[in-house]
Write a structure and sequence with these properties.
Its cofactor is pyridoxal 5'-phosphate. One of its GO terms (biological process) is carboxylic acid metabolic process. This is Putative histidine decarboxylase (HDC) (TOM92). This protein is of the alpha/beta class and about 400 residues long. It has two domains: about 25-60 and about 315-405, Aspartate Aminotransferase, domain 1 (Alpha-Beta Complex), CATH 3.90.1150.10; about 85-310, Aspartate Aminotransferase, domain 2 (3-Layer(aba) Sandwich). It is built from 15 helices and 13 strands. It has helices spanning about 1-20, 25-35, 55-60, 85-95, 115-135, 150-155, 175-180, 205-215, 230-235, 245-250, 275-280, 300-315, 315-340, 360-365, 390-405, and strands at about 110-115, 140-145, 160-165, 190-195, 220-225, 250-255, 270-275, 285, 290, 345, 350-355, 370-375, 380-385. The strands form three sheets. A seven-stranded mixed sheet has the order 1-7-6-5-4-2-3, sandwiched between helices. Strands 10-11-13-12 form a four-stranded antiparallel sheet, with helices on one face. Strand 12 and strand 13 (about 380-385) form a beta hairpin. About 40% of the residues are buried.
């Protein structure tokens, strides 16, 4: 019966699209048809498929904004932002979120980014510049071997010496391994994973900070937090201190907009301390009336408007409820897998459950991400419990697993 209800719910969800006006381009309309019914069983990746931007697009079209070309080139935190931009709204977005990440609103700088990777790129670039300006020495970057691959790629792009630190079997950087690999004669650029890619692990920042504190001979330390997914929901839970600058003493943090916050295209936030910003290489661009410290010149002017809209429409109270629901459904999924004897694991504070990989049919139906780890028997898959993954849908997934045996 639960399986029947799940199928009916999927059909009802799809029906709202069936009578939408076609584009007139068969290739485009056919492409839309291939994915719209699959949204309900999109389980394997950290994308919120319950976007709340419909009203935004109605406003955007009825006001004629679609024919206006805006560009957020320049620094949104200056008193005189570039006129043809949404930087005034971007600044409001940064100032709204700053306290949720433990920043002093008077000592923060930030931008709305193109993605979480863009935020990490700024974190690594700002961190390297900060350390070089402070010490006149080249830093070494330290990152977990289970952190998102973008951190390694970006360090390679920026030609920064990198040391991969071993993680434990659950995906957390091992403090003893960090200490073993530390070069205390060089500045340290730390990347903390706030939710590793496959296992949803959180590096123990307090333990890792303690390692660094034991070595006052290190010339300087910069800490960047890659919080693409977990940085979205943790500020709205009782675990908010885990992403607090005041509590964890990091210098910068990157968060995605297209994960927890439900943007329909990649975006994100990058926040850092004012001291970090002040120790960047400054490019004075007269024609923009701006001191350019960020990497990008042109930046999206629509994404800050979406963030601002969601702050007004959704806000902290609803985000708190969504975060609680996600974590409750994560526990429900784990218990349901345990109940049928399907090997599964989950990290504390995480919305990611990884488990023994099922048949390829189920992997395809539920768009499950795949991994491999000998510690857990080899072939694995995972589900990232986002806002659209409800207990009813989990029941449907469990039934599919049971029937596949």
């Amino acid at each position: 019966m639960k399986r029947v209800c799940f199928i009916l719910a999927t059909l009802l969800f799809s029906a709202q699209y069936m009578y939408a006006q076609p584009s007139g381009y068969k290739k485009l309309d056919k492409w839309v048809d291939t994915w719209k019914t699959g949204l309900q069983t999109y389980f394997g990746y950290p994308i919120n498929q319950k976007s709340e931007l419909h009203d935004f697009y109605e406003w955007y079209l009825t006001t004629g904004m679609e024919v206006i070309n805006l560009n957020n080139a320049g620094d949104p935190m200056t008193d005189e932002p570039w006129k043809m931009s949404s930087q005034a709204f971007e600044r409001e977005v940064i100032e709204y979120f700053a306290p949720y990440y433990g920043f002093d609103i008077n000592q923060v700088w930030g931008i709305v980014t193109h993605s979480g990777t863009d935020g990490n790129n700024h974190g690594i670039y700002f961190g390297a510049n900060y350390l070089k300006n402070k010490t006149k020495m080249e830093p070494i970057l330290y990152v977990s071997d289970e952190a998102h691959y973008s951190n390694m790629r970006l360090a390679h792009l920026q030609n920064i010496e990198t040391r991969l630190i071993k993680s434990d079997k659950m995906g957390r950087m091992i403090a003893e391994e960090l200490e073993k690999n530390l070069d205390t004669s060089r500045p340290v650029l730390m990347i903390y994973a706030m939710g590793s890619t496959f296992k949803g692990a959180i590096d123990d920042m307090e333990a890792l900070n303690a390692v660094l504190d034991r070595h006052p001979e290190i010339p300087a330390v910069y800490r960047h937090v890659d919080a693409a997914l977990f940085g979205g929901y943790l500020p709205f839970t009782q675990y908010r201190n885990m992403v607090s600058q005041q509590a964890m003493h990091f210098e910068s943090i990157a968060i995605s907009g297209h994960k927890f916050f439900g943007f329909d295209s990649p975006s994100g936030l990058f926040l850092c301390t004012r001291d970090t910003y002040d120790n960047q290489t400054n490019f004075n661009v007269t024609y923009l009336n701006s001191n350019m410290r960020m990497i990008n010149c042109s930046r999206d002017a629509v994404q800050p408007l979406k963030f601002w809209w969601l702050i007004q429409k959704v806000g902290a109270e609803k985000w708190s409820k969504q975060a609680q629901q996600m974590l409750e459904c994560t526990k429900y999924l784990k218990k349901s897998l345990d109940k049928i004897g399907w090997p599964a694991w989950v990290n504390e504070y995480s919305n990611t459950v990884f488990f023994r990989r099922p048949s390829q049919d189920i992997v395809s139906l539920y768009t499950l991400a795949q991994g491999y780890d000998e510690h857990f028997g080899g072939e694995l898959a995972h589900i990232v419990v986002m806002q659209h993954v409800t207990q009813e849908k989990i029941d449907g997934f469990i039934e599919a697993l049971k029937n596949s045996r």
